[in-house]
Amino acid sequence: MALAVKRPISEVASLPEPSTIVPQIPTHRLYKRIRRNACKSNCTPTSILAYVNLLEEASSNEALQLLLKITDSMHFDESEFPDAIRKLVEHFQREPESAVRVKILSLFADLATETGIDGQQLIDEVIKLLKAEKSAKVISQGLIVLEKIGKSYTPSVAYINQMVFFAKMKLFSPSHNVQRHAILLLGVFVLVSDAEKESLELIGKYTDSPDARVRAQAFRSMLTLGERGVQLPPSLYPRACASLTDDYECVRKEALNMVFELGVRHPEEMIKVQDSEQEVRLIDDAFGKVCSAICDLSMNIRTLAAELLGGMTMVSDEFLHQTLDKKLMSNMRKKRSLHERSAAHFASGEWSSGKKWADDAPKEVISADSVSLMASGACGALVQGLEDEFLEVRTASVNSMCKLALKNPLFAVTSLDFLVDMFNDEIEEVRLRAIYSLTAISRHIILREDQLETMLSSLEDYSVEVREGLHLMLGACKVSTKACLTLVVQKVLDVLLKYPEDRLSTFGCMQRVGQKHPEICMSITPQLLLDHPFFDSAERDVEDPAYVCVLIMLFNAAQHLPAMLSLFPETTIKHYAYLRDTMPNFVPRLAVGGDTKELNLTGSTGSRQFLETLLSNIQRAYSAPQARQALLKAAQDDLDRLAEIDPTFSGTANFTSVFFGAQLQMEQLQLAATGHSIKAPIKECLLQLIKKCLMLQNLFSNLTIDDQLLVKQMCLRASALNLVLIVKDRSQSALGPCQLLLHIASDASSFLQENTLLIADTFTSAILTKLASVGDPKPGRVYREILPIVQTAAPVVIPQINTNIKMCKARIIEPTESSYSAENVIKVTAGLIAAVPFVAELENLQEAQRQDLRLKVKYPDQNVHIIVPRKRDLKKVMTEQGESESQWRLRTKVLLSHGVWTEASTVEITICLSVKPNNELELCKPVKVHFAPKPVKRGL
């Protein structure tokens, strides 16, 4: 790659408007020391020309080793590339060994993908070399290189036609590898207009090639052309159907994809049925062909066929329902009754003459090899997939059945029994997919009592995910009768007694059950509350989880049917007030006892108006430092409270609060940089400022470009202050802070160059200008350059209101401080391990942040252990609409171990993000559990 050129001082001094032109910070300075230490002591060439010149007198083996060294380096001056390519071409022409020529071509592809070299020149050179080449191995590699070069940049139409013409010439090669890569090149680069005229037909002819790899590649290239916008004609359908019985799996796979693609693209096209004059829709016939592939010998083909069925939603109802109609046949053929056989024999007009032996013998028993169990393609296909021996096929069949049921309510009712049967599968993943599929189609079905018995029997599953999935499913489905609802409630409460850790999941299940069945709940209210019509019953324990489940269901039903309130006893009304205060997310507001009005603070009115007023007041006090700082301190408390009471504005309020906190810390440290004394320790303030900058960078998502610029400018100010104060202190090395400042400045400079419409503030422009003018960025010189800018910096610009900001945060569900209180201490022998179940829910965690998730355990002796949870322990939360986009659930075990303690003490457990080494951002408040390692008991 080309080395960045340092900007001379005179060029920076002549800038007319430093606020609008972004100086470039050379990034190679950041790693100068690392590269210097990484240089080897031997005389290894650092120029690509030096490597290439050694090829002239090298043998084939030595040349291959030199080419491998060039590939490993790939950091050269781009000005040397034209001469190096010319010499590599000359060596290619005189090299007798084909392996070396293959490596030279591969090096051309690496140069095109990893450097800024001209790709068109490489295309010309490669095609010229391949025209005189005889080795099929080298030609195949050349075609691969042309594909990589073409994908690394956008070639012109002339060069595309040049590559396509060369590929068409190589289609007549006797080597199957050359044919395969030529067809691949055509599928990727042929023009759409040319493909529809002749290229598509040319590629289609190679589906009859004697080599299976060429046949598979022909289908794959035609599918690639279809993805690029080429109209795939229905005339390809017979050719694809014929390849479904190919001997090779790779061909059957691509042909199956082609059948699916043609069926989806031309659903209403009419085609003739084989050996018949009848016509059917193309989508129906393709559906039958895909269904037939579920009986394929290969597991991969069966899995693919089961997956493709879910995308064929335009199939006719009779074909769709036939997938669930699996007729069992005796002796490989369906038997008819004696009356039916006699009637058929009489209608034929033929009688036994007795001249031939056994000419009247029964004809039901025939050869097993001549009859297929499948009466037609679609007959029982999904049932066959659900009964497959491989879990991949069963899982794909369940997913496809769910997709088809979502589009066809009648099919959803028919497939209900089959999905319920999958609850008894031996693989947990299959059971979960069946549960989630039934949850997704719940709006189309009503459960019967016999189906509920099978579902509820799975509630005692050992897997907590299966139990929670069933709770979600039961809350989403509707039941038909009073007996069904009673059965559900009784079974859920029995399982809760066995698994008390499912308390929250059970509460949510009963909440949704009450909301969906208000009339049935009203009919069983006296039965559930044990309310006698004549005698007063004893007051139930409001802390009993089973009783709380019943109340949650009835209160949510009463929200939709207020007449139920008259059936509640007086004690139940009192318990409502208690539960409404303790768990408002499960208990709705009812018209019980006094005022029922509720204050609704919506994000569109009250919260936004409050934020606008707050920011305008701070803006008015912008020129008065003392008033501005007082307003910023008061605004932090108000914003934290706003984040608690209005979830829709939680991310915006938290972002603004953290920004104001960083601004306050920065203004205090700026006073320290000018020589004034401050109350708080400087090191402590620096740590808090760095932590708030890390929070702004890592905990908030959906930031606009202006918000990102504000964050980068804030981080640049913080790093400049950090360097200035550390150099002033002289108690530690300033090399690390200097490198950090250069890195942040380079990032900000690149961001401003990418977004030319943004304008940096005066501080950022001045810092970038100074850093660009520094020739040798040593800490002392950088400090002297930026010190006056830091001391005279103006306050930070106030962020604008962005209601789309989301903050990553967590909520620890288990353990709770009450579950491991002083009366319930975790006791373990000192030195051994205690496993504490840990469950937490995370909101707005980005996919890229999953690997940074950590558990932090802090012991009373201030020892801190950082634990990396397993990837499989973090999964997305399932809802009735499917997987949640922003909510995750972490379910794992925290291992605690320590030496002997004299008494039980609290251990803090929290969840955090590891954004930098030794820098963890806590996502929630830590939970405290009592832990007591006991001494080892010595035997006699």
Automatic annotation (TrEMBL):
Residues 812-936 form the Integrator complex subunit 4/Protein SIEL C-terminal Ig-like domain. One of its GO terms (cellular component) is integrator complex. It comes from Anopheles epiroticus. Residues 608-802 form the INTS4 8 helical bundle domain. Keywords: Nucleus. This is Integrator complex subunit 4. InterPro entries: ARM-like, ARM-type_fold, INTS4_8HBD, INTS4_C. SUPFAM superfamilies: ARM repeat (SSF48371). It is found in: Nucleus. One of its GO terms (biological process) is snRNA processing. The keyword Nucleus applies. The keyword Nucleus applies. Gene3D superfamilies: Leucine-rich Repeat Variant.
